[in-house]
Specification:
Radius of gyration: 31 Å
Largest sheet: 6 strands, antiparallel
Helix content: 55-70%
Shape: elongated
Structural class: alpha+beta
Number of strands: 10
Strand order of the largest sheet: 1-2-3-4-6-5
Distance between the termini: 71 Å
């Protein structure tokens, strides 16, 4: 029998098991299947009429007392394929509760075809799960066979409701629902990266633990896109029995080849249901032909319309919150044509994160008004800690200028700033540029206009150059940053006395530039001079003093390995930030508290660090956008702390979330993303997740080589860490050359790099035979 036909016939036959034997043929006729499939189903029926009551109602699966080292405690669920039991270790080696999935074989005893298909499906699930390692995918722990040769699978036990029930009973709001779905989509993306399609995504296959973490279950009908675990590709075609039609894609119900786009469709249905409280289609009572027509040919109502059928008390958000971008996101994921859905699960998740951050979404399209409205907002995280670049340029720059009263005719200056602002916005207009302009291009264009626009206004020119230069520095465009910030500093030194806040701001920005360039000696000298100038001029009540203390402390913490000295600077910064009359915004205060927490953590003050993380994070989530880099830093630092306390899984989950936020905040190569990759790689190695650790380390090194084409400490660190991961994984690749490159680079760089040279020695000794290893001096 053709494998596609066999799969479809088997699925239909399994559905027929729910009918009375006398009604089976009449039921089959009503299903609207092809004559070939009907004949195949009838052959299966004839072959099994001789079996012992095969069509009789199924008796509950008998629960054995023991399966290998596991003692079964209770039945959790039962279906056509088998049952799931709660179990725990029977040998008392350690305490652990697990879920054991046991296949139902007695019903297939009379049919080699069904038995073969069920066993293959079950064994495929076991192998699939063994390949997946993600905090939101239930892990496989063990497996084996019963005394009757029935296979079983031991999985992580998730004690919690399914996804839909969790959202409903917890009455989650819109943002909480979206964050939960982002994690679910991230788990599916991990499966797709391993060439696995789930093919049965539905609320019942996603449980939510008490901690609020979703766990994706049941890869029993997943399709492997590689050839490792399957026979020829035709054996993987989905049949109606190997999916849940309410969540299945059009190509699934048409029995067409399945790709990752099918999972994206199902994720769209899930999001549709969670947001609106309704499913896009009502399929109950429909035969397969009508159900297929509904899924494949009928456009669902928009979620913002469907939610009107949900009682107001049960809505995650008012309909107006769904109208527009969320409608478009959901319907893009659910497009009938796979080519018009999101290109990947990651792209789907990123659009949701963009929505949460108030940035333009891919699903919205190319409306001129929409893109102009979002132009400033999409860059605010990478440019400024509070307002968007253009508004800051127009508002903060003019306010500073007016406060200094450096221009007698303020009206004239305002006109100049307004004209400059209009031109910057014009550069972002696709009808002006012929396409949508990036922030980098807009700021480069603005830079060329500064000399002419503000030739007779040196301090106003300095303010504009400083603002754009600071934006370039935030984007890691170091060449443009150096040009603009250096000229701004020169102009301010010519026009303002020592100790003026604007001069201090320029000096502090140039110090941060030196840090990013790897010139730590120059940065240290400039930070010290900046602080001394401010203190000598009595300007410690100005915001720039707190900023300089925080920035200098951060350099000492991350590059000079001086947590105690950094701690002293952070404590001083917080004291001045909280003093009466301080102009320090809450956004900066949250950063200071985060740095204080990290310093205490490195000094071993764990309880103090935890308390500070809680205090600072509560403030940060109140004043920052959901994907702000400072929030990512909080998650990163707290992840390292809880990991070191023994909560490895929670630590890794926090670090994964931090890295995802960094990728959204800084698209492409950026030191913040590089740091997230390297930190997660280090923790993954400590958790003995060697493959994940090596993958991250390689990505970090490749990014560092692009970011730093010349010798740089960050590149040297990446080389050292990737070498260590190669050594730990037992890779045949030669890491000696990589270590030598790092060593030569460190010797070339300025400053004391003994810490990293010692780490090179440790990596080499770890690779040496035991008798050759020597202790490393601290």
């Amino acid at each position: 029998m053709d494998l596609e036909l066999e799969s479809a016939a088997l699925a239909l036959f399994e559905h027929g098991l729910q009918t009375q034997p006398a009604d089976f043929l009449a039921w089959l006729e009503q299903q609207g299947a092809s004559p070939a499939i009907n004949r195949a189903v009838t052959e299966l029926l004839n072959a099994h009429q001789q079996s012992q009551g095969f069509l009789a109602p199924k008796a509950p699966l008998v629960m054995p007392d023991l399966l290998g080292p596991w003692r079964l405690l209770e039945r959790l669920s039962e279906g056509g394929m088998g049952a799931v039991f709660l179990a725990q270790r029977a040998d008392d080696t350690y305490q652990q509760r697990v879920a054991i999935k046991l296949i139902r074989m007695e019903q297939a005893a009379g049919s080699p075809t069904i038995k073969r298909n069920l066993v293959q499906r079950f064994e495929a699930e076991r192998q699939i799960l063994a390949r997946l390692d993600h905090p939101n995918i239930a892990r496989i722990l063990d497996g084996g066979q019963t005394s009757d040769q029935e296979p079983y699978l031991v999985m992580e036990y998730v004690d919690g409701p399914d996804l839909a029930r969790y959202v409903r009973t917890r009455k989650l709001g819109l943002e909480a629902v979206l964050r939960l779905m982002i994690k679910v989509i991230g788990a599916v993306a991990e499966a797709h990266r391993n060439l696995i399609v789930h093919r049965d995504l539905k609320p019942e296959n996603i449980l939510v633990a008490e901690s609020g973490e979703p766990k994706l279950l049941d890869f029993g009908i997943a399709k492997i896109l590689s050839d490792e675990l399957t026979e020829p590709r035709t054996s993987t075609v989905t049949a109606m029995g190997a999916m849940t039609p309410a969540y299945a894609s059009p190509e699934q119900v048409r029995l067409e080849p399945i790709t990752t786009a099918s999972d994206i469709y199902s994720l769209g249905v899930l999001l549709y249901e969670l947001l609106s409280g309704q499913r896009p289609y009502e399929l109950r009572g429909l035969n397969p032909v009508d159900a297929q027509r509904m899924v494949c040919d009928t456009a669902p109502p928009r979620p913002s319309v469907a939610i009107m059928r949900t009682p107001a008390v049960d809505r995650a958000a008012p309909p107006r919150r769904l109208k527009g971008e969320l409608d478009k996101i959901v319907l893009k994921a659910m497009h009938k044509d796979p080519q018009h859905r999101y290109a990947s699960a990651t792209a789907f998740a990123q659009d949701l994160m963009q929505f949460l951050a108030g940035r333009p979404v891919q699903a919205r399209g190319d409306s001129l008004a929409y893109r102009l409205r979002k132009f400033v907002a999409r860059n605010k995280l990478a440019v400024f800690s509070s307002a968007a670049v253009v508004l800051t340029l127009a508002g903060a720059t003019w306010n500073t200028w007016r406060q200094n009263q450096a221009v007698a005719d303020s009206a004239s200056s305002a006109q100049q700033m307004n004209a400059f602002l209009i031109d910057v916005l014009a550069n972002a207009d696709p009808f002006t540029a012929g396409r949508e302009t990036t922030l980098k291009e807009a700021l480069y264009a603005a830079e060329t206009e500064i000399d002419q626009r503000f030739a007779d206004r040196p301090l106003l020119e300095a303010e504009v150059r400083h603002t754009i230069g600071y934006a370039a520095l935030s984007r890691n465009d170091l060449e443009q940053a150096e040009r603009l910030l250096s000229r701004a500093d020169q102009l301010r030194r010519q026009e303002l006395p020592p100790g003026a806040p604007q001069r201090a701001a320029s000096s502090n920005a140039l110090a941060w530039l030196s840090v990013n360039q790897g010139k730590y000696g120059a940065a240290r000298q400039r930070y010290q001079q900046t602080l001394a100038d401010i203190e000598r001029a009595g300007g410690t009540d100005d915001r720039i003093y707190v900023t300089a203390l925080n920035d200098y402390g951060l350099m000492l913490l991350t590059h000079d390995e001086q947590p105690q000295r950094a701690l002293e600077l952070f404590e001083k910064a917080r004291r001045f930030a909280l003093s009466p009359g301080s102009k320090t915004p809450e956004t900066e205060l949250s950063s200071i508290i985060n740095n204080l927490a990290r310093s205490n953590d490195l000094l071993g003050n764990v309880d103090e660090a935890l308390a500070l993380y809680e205090e600072g994070y509560a403030l940060a989530v109140k004043v920052l956008p959901p994907t702000h880099p400072n929030l990512a830093s909080y998650l990163n630092n707290r992840g390292q702390l809880v990991f070191n306390k023994g909560q490895q899984r929670e630590g890794l989950e926090l670090m994964e979330e931090s890295l995802a936020m960094r990728r959204v905040s800084f698209s492409g190569d950026h030191p913040s993303v590089w740091l997230g990759l390297l930190n997660l790689s280090t923790l993954s190695a400590k958790a003995e997740r060697s493959d994940r650790a090596l993958t991250l380390a390689r990505e970090a090194t490749a990014m560092a080589r692009r970011l730093y084409p010349e010798a740089h400490l960050n590149l040297a660190i990446s080389l050292i860490r990737e070498s260590a991961r190669l050594q730990e994984s037992g890779s045949a690749q030669d890491y000696v050359t990589m270590l030598s490159e790092a060593e030569m680079m460190l010797e070339e760089l300025e400053g004391n790099n003994d810490y990293w040279l010692t780490e090179i020695t440790e990596v080499r000794q770890a690779a040496a035979p035991a008798e050759e290893k020597k202790p490393v001096n601290p």
